[in-house]
Amino acid sequence: MALQPPSHPTTRRKTLNILTSLILVLTIQKQDTANALDFRMTVPDQTLEEAEAGIQTHAQNLLKVKDLLMEESYKEAQKNLRKSSSLLKQDIYTIIQAKSGKERPVLRKLYSDLFNSVTGLDYAARDKDRTRVWECYHSIVLALNDILSRI
Question: Residue 39 carries which DSSP code?
Fold first, then answer.
């Protein structure tokens, strides 16, 4: 004979249902901006003039990672790479947003290529893969020269 669940809820089951409902309500109320958009990527925090003034310096700082790569100081190279690339990324993004609609697609493609190479270099440095490090570094140099010549 198979056991049948009781037809009336037990005290334990009632307590679990109440606690589960309470946790659900508190979780829903606690979500302040989880479903809101993050406008920091769509509205730059800097002006076009600030971006144009800083882009050369940030680009040079990105290329200075070469010295650390030659010394095979990969951890330090990663730190500098991340810092300089994030500043450069913001500069280029701000400048692209100020360009006309016809120019943007090409610049966005170059932007994507540049920062995909930066990400590749970061991973290659993490893995200490010398060959891949230098491939990515040379890709960064080419992409950076290309995008700077068009901006």
Answer: T
Of the candidates 123, 100, 113, the one whose C-alpha atom is nearest the C-alpha of residue 145 is 113
CA–CA gap between residue 52 and residue 125 (Å, rounded): 29
Q: Which domains does the chain possess?
A: 48-150 (1.20.120.290)
Is the pLDDT score of 103 beyond 60? Answer: yes
For residue 151, pLDDT over 90 is answered with no
How much is the pTM?
Answer: 0.67
- As a whole number of angstroms, the distance between CA 132 and CA 135 comes to 5
Q: Which tokens go with 63?
A: 């290329």
pLDDT in tens, 32-71: 544 444 444 444 578 888 988 999 999 999 999 999 999 9
> Please, is 97 exposed, middle or buried when counting C-beta atoms within 10 Å of its C-beta (0-12, 13-18, 19+)?
middle
The candidate with the shortest Cα–Cα distance to 119, out of 82, 144, 146, is 82
